[in-house]
C-alpha cells in the first residue's frame, strides 16, 4: 500500500508515476487493474502540481521579502 499522499514527497510521487508508466508501456497491467492505475496516476499528478504550486509560492515570498529588504535599505 502506498504511503498517504500527504506523506509522499514530490520525488516519491514522480517515482510512483514512472513505475505506473513503465507498466503501462510494457502492457504489464491487466485490463482490470488499468482503471485503478489511471486513477492513482491522476492523484499523483494532482499532488505533484500542488507541491509545485506551494514551492512556487514559497519562492515568490522569499523574493518579495528580499525586495522589501532592499526597499527598506534604500531609505535607511
TrEMBL record:
Compartments where located: Cytoplasm
Chain segments annotated as transmembrane: none
Enzyme class: hydrolase
Subunit structure: Heterooligomer composed of large and small subunits.
SUPFAM superfamilies in alphabetical order: XseB-like
Pfam family, one: Exonuc_VII_S
Species, as recorded: Hymenobacter psychrophilus
GO molecular function terms attached to this record: exodeoxyribonuclease VII activity
Superkingdom classification of source: Bacteria
Record keyword Glycosyltransferase present: no
GO biological process: DNA catabolic process
Main location as per UniProt: cytoplasm
Sorted UniProt keywords: Coiled coil, Cytoplasm, Exonuclease, Hydrolase, Nuclease
Cleavable signal peptide: none
Reactions the enzyme catalyzes: Exonucleolytic cleavage in either 5'- to 3'- or 3'- to 5'-direction to yield nucleoside 5'-phosphates
Record keyword Iron present: no
One GO CC term, this protein: exodeoxyribonuclease VII complex
Protein name stated in the entry: Exodeoxyribonuclease 7 small subunit
Task performed by this protein: Bidirectionally degrades single-stranded DNA into large acid-insoluble oligonucleotides, which are then degraded further into small acid-soluble oligonucleotides.
Family: Belongs to the XseB family.
Residue ranges that the Swiss-Prot or TrEMBL entry lists as coiled coil: 14-72
EC identifiers of the protein: 3.1.11.6
